[in-house]
Amino acid sequence: MGSMTRLGQGITPLESNVKSLHIRISRNGVHGFRTPPHLYRFGRQKCKSIVPIQIEPNNDGILKPEIQWCGIKPRRSLGCRASSADAGTGDLHGNIGNDFRSEVGIVKEEATNGGPKGMAEAFDISPRTALGITAVIAISVLVLPMYMPSSGVGMTLRTRGLSYLTLLLGFYMAWNIGANDVANAMGTSVGSGALTLRQAVLTAAVLEFSGAFMVGSHVSHTMQSGILTPSVFAGKETLLFCGMLSSLGAAGTWLQVASYFGWPVSTTHCIIGAMVGFGLVYGGVGAVYWKSLFRVVSSWVVSPLLGAFVSFLVYKCIRRFVYRAPNPGQAAATAAPLAVFLGVAALSFTVLPTQGVGLMAGGKALGLGLLGAVIINIVIRRQLGELLGAYCELPSEEEQQGKASRDEGPKGTQLKIVYSVFGYLQVLSACFMSFAHGANDVANAIGPISAALAILHKTGVASGGPPSMPVDVLAWGGFGIVAGLVVWGYRVIATIGQKITELTPTRGFAAEFAAATVVVLASRLGLPISATHTLVGAVMGVGFARGLNSVRTDVVREIVASWVVTIPVGAALSVAYTFIFIKLIPSLV
């Protein structure tokens, strides 16, 4: 057992307007703090065990932490994050001592909303390592486009230069998609404690790229040729090319601003708003394919409502058939294979080709779903005995919220088993959501890239032929999403993962499973829906299932406000960028 930091006696009341505290324990003592009644888990890879701490002020306003101590080996500072995590053995009670007072700083809630302040802090790596990762990505971005087939190999120097510029702007857009929309796939998993930030990013990197590369072409065709009418720009290839570049630049700019402030805005809204703004100003009303646009916009309204509805039903089913079961742990273990079967079958059906062999693809999808269900059943059944002894007493879900409930659900060991089972399921649902997000949102970058390259190379849509989707462009978009996710993705995770409503593994699973199902079906239909809207709707659906007071309306209002301004801002930036590009880029005719 590692060394323990003894807490002394006595601390005077803190400022009455303190809303958010952070606690850090290092070999030197206590650093920072966070307001009760949240339960926090301390420890990262360097921590041998878990130290939960709950702080509540007594009648005198003195903070009295109760620490359940397992023992820590404090090789370095240990971060903390909200969790329904589990305690260890042994108790140590006491007040934060005056000798630590100089090391405790008051941090208003506004100052903590941004989460980690840098890539190194977010992933618990050294600044030198973070700088090295960033440098490798930057060099790759500058060098790889020169060797891509879509860069115009064998064409004139001007064409190759413009192709290079197009690929760079496309990467910038994809990078910002990864930086902003990673929260759609992994925010709930991090918020509930099912995954650490580092685990979430590594998992999302693989699944986002896979979804973009394997299924991204379905939605990309809509973005490439279903928003603007190319015939309106016949003989105006330079203008249309500048418009595609401007759309990428405008959407990327707004997404970077939103990522900096932690707003989970819709990348789909941003890029479509930019394209429509360009089309209306430089091509007139006839430049916009209104029928297709109406189909896309209607899906923006339906998707969050559908996500909320599905997550509401899923969480209600969990409460009804798991929490209220005579043996909740056994009920959770029984429900897990069904959830995996549905998720794997839906994902497999999306990936497998169905043209001419729909029944065969459906049979394969069902077979893979059944295989996944069998595997998860074996894993959970084998782990169930270990889980019974792996955790100590936990408060019920309602007790974590600090309010009484008529039906408190499972407690103690049963609750630990339920959370452990759904912890596994939430990791799988996060993978499901990450794949679905990559499949749908990569189109926001590679659709305009493909359209611009078609104009330059006189192929596909620009020449009146069928739309083409180069494989290397799909891979390039996937790489851009992964790069943005690694370098800046941590900034938005906290908003969806922790601020809309408190999340546990069961709630996080319900939200992710519902959102992923809606997004992956939309991807199969070629609808560029907003994954952001869908997941936020799903998280709200879980909150509504717990009661209206469980949803933080102030956070929701801020998110909706950022959504409202996204389309006009994207359109305005696109018009301005087009004006600049027209002056700089020579005629392509």
From TrEMBL:
InterPro entries registered for this protein in UniProt: Phos_transporter
Annotated localization: Membrane
Keywords on record: Membrane, Phosphate transport, Transmembrane, Transmembrane helix, Transport
Bilayer-spanning residue ranges: 129-149, 161-179, 200-218, 238-263, 270-290, 296-318, 330-352, 358-380, 417-436, 473-493, 505-523, 529-548, 560-582
Main localisation: membrane
Keyword Lipid metabolism (UniProt): no
Highest taxon above the source species: Eukaryota
Classification via Pfam families: PHO4 (PF01384)
Protein family per UniProt: Belongs to the inorganic phosphate transporter (PiT) (TC 2.A.20) family.
Protein name according to UniProt: Phosphate transporter
The organism of origin for this protein: Physcomitrium patens (Spreading-leaved earth moss)
Gene that encodes it: LOC112286842
